[in-house]
């Protein structure tokens, strides 16, 4: 083999000239690698499979009766679409912890010598996590229908609500991947993540209508993107309330977070693997 042939991959790595087709092949290979990891470590799917069931049962049967005067079926119809908004946030935080753990264990060191675009590693993770969000949302809906959730619109509106939830959750994934590459330990990622998650989740319309909240908290929930997503999912599945405004706001948040944070995450990954 000639010297030129042996050094060609390294030259491609150093000058960063990787074509779109090659980049797609790299992403596909990394997606398969991540899926195989889940296959050999089924516990990695535990949060996606168990969390929606636990949350649906816990909040409906512990708080549902008190919030609706004993009419838990009414609360199921309110809470299940809201929980669709929360699921993506929980899974997004778990990937931040996983990315930090991969760096601490040296898993990411392998990519330093590979002639691949650094963005392909993160995009592959994003694709796999989006799939996990989809699975988690489907399990939530199955659980909701078992508990009495009623779809008052149609299957197309339900599909759109699921896609909107996964799209927004995917945009949050960039934030937690960046956080995972910036914090020193997985515990630090988890601690800071919960500090962000708790106000967003409970200071929203996911669990209860915002009309009963104090004025200052209502102002926060009005600008909370999880509230807008929960409102959009409820409108799409119930047929009641405005649809266009919360949907457009949610899409705006998803696009803005991706456009702003994704380049920062890719840049951070390049620095850590250089």
TrEMBL record:
Domain ABC transmembrane type-2: 43-272
Residue ranges crossing the lipid bilayer per the database entry: 43-63, 75-99, 120-146, 158-180, 192-217, 247-266
Keyword Transmembrane in annotation: yes
Compartments it resides in: Cell membrane; Membrane
Broad class of where this protein is predominantly found: membrane
Record-level GO cellular component terms: ATP-binding cassette (ABC) transporter complex
Gene Ontology MF annotations: ABC-type transporter activity
Family per record: Belongs to the ABC-2 integral membrane protein family.
Key words of the record: Antibiotic resistance, Cell membrane, Membrane, Transmembrane, Transmembrane helix, Transport
Name of protein: Transport permease protein
Domain of life: Bacteria
Keyword match Cell membrane: yes
Organism, as annotated: Streptomyces antioxidans
One record GO biological process: response to antibiotic
Bilayer topology annotation: Multi-pass membrane protein
């Amino acid at each position: 083999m000639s010297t030129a042939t042996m050094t060609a991959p390294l030259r491609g790595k150093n000058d960063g000239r990787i074509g779109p087709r090659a980049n797609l092949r790299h992403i596909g290979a990394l997606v398969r690698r991540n899926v195989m990891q889940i296959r050999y470590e089924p516990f990695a799917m535990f949060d996606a499979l168990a969390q929606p069931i636990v949350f649906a049962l816990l909040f409906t049967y512990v708080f549902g009766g008190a919030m609706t005067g004993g009419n838990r079926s009414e609360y199921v119809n309110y809470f299940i679409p809201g929980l669709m908004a929360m699921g993506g946030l929980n899974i997004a935080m778990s990937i931040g912890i996983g990315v930090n753990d991969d760096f601490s264990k040296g898993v990411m060191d392998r990519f330093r010598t590979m002639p691949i675009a650094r963005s392909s590693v993160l995009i592959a993770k994003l694709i796999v996590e989006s799939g996990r969000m989809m699975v988690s949302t489907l399990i939530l809906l199955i659980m909701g229908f078992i508990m009495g959730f009623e779809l008052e619109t149609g299957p197309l509106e339900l599909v759109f609500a699921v896609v909107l939830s996964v799209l927004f959750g995917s945009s949050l994934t960039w934030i937690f991947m960046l956080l995972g590459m910036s914090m020193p330990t997985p515990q630090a990622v988890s601690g800071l993540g919960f500090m962000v998650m708790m106000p967003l989740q409970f200071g929203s319309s996911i669990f209860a209508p915002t009309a009963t909240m104090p004025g200052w908290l209502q102002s926060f929930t009005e600008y909370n993107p999880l509230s807008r997503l929960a409102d959009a999912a409820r409108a799409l599945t119930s047929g009641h309330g405005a649809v266009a405004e919360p949907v457009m706001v949610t899409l705006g948040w998803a696009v803005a977070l991706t456009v702003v944070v994704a380049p920062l995450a890719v840049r951070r990954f390049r620095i850590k693997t250089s």
